Structure formats: structure tokens, C-alpha cells
Amino acid sequence: MMSSTPTMKKPENKPLNTAPACEETLCRRGFFGKHGTVMTESPPADKNTSIIINEVQMVLAEKRTSLSVMRTGIAVLVLPLSVLSVLVATSRYYVAAHVIGLLIPLGILMVALLVLGFYLVGRSALRMRHYDHMIQQIKRKHSVIAEFID
Hints:
Radius of gyration: 31 Å
Mean pLDDT: 80
Shape: elongated
Structural class: mainly alpha
Largest sheet: none
Order of helices and strands: HHHH
Distance between the termini: 83 Å
Strand content: under 5%
Helix content: 55-70%
Number of helices: 4
């Protein structure tokens, strides 16, 4: 025998965000305004403008990479100087003639690190100048984007 007890319906969980579907689409594509609010403007219609902006973003990403190489080069430059300062600070605890077999390879390694550090810093400085020149060329060629770039 089956009892006929009434079953309760579960309440529907509605999302708190009731933004229209078009704004959700823009949100997924990355068109955000200030403080994470979704912009209601449509993306740029001109495909050339979009390509130019992407080109500038690529050049700026390369410039950031150059800056990180410069940061690495500066760190490599500091390493031999800190080792040298430790050697000088502890010089009263050893006689250089007794540890010359260790000091010569250490000196060669420090010179190699100095050369590598100067190379990395110099190369990244040249690359950054090249990227700045590329951005200036893009600004001259496309006046649409010039107002947005320093």
C-alpha cells in the first residue's frame, strides 16, 4: 500500500547577478571598466586599430622582458661584489699565499660574472632603446594610437 504524502518542491536558486546576456558576453571577452564593472560600449569596430593596439602591446611585452633581463644582469653584477666584500672582511683569518689555489679560480669566476652582468645590462639597454624606437615609429605611422601612448 502506497501512502500519498505530498512532496515539497525545492526552491529554485536564482543567481544574484541579473546582468543581461550581452554584458556577460563582454565580461567573458575582457571588456571591463573601472573597478571591474562591465562596460556597455562595444569593442573597437576598426580591425586595423585593433591590430595596431596588439602590435604595441607586443612591443611593450618585449620591453618588459628586456627590463627583467636587466634586473637579472644587475643581480649578477652584485654577486661578485658581495663575495669580494666577504673575502676582504675575513682576510685577517687566512693568508692569501696558503689559499691561492682557491683565490685564483674564485677571481676568474668573479670576472666572468662581471662580464656576464655587464653584457646582460648593456644588451637589455640596447633592446629597450630599439623597442622605444619601434613604438615611436608606430605612433608616427598611425595617428589614431598616438594619443594613447606617451
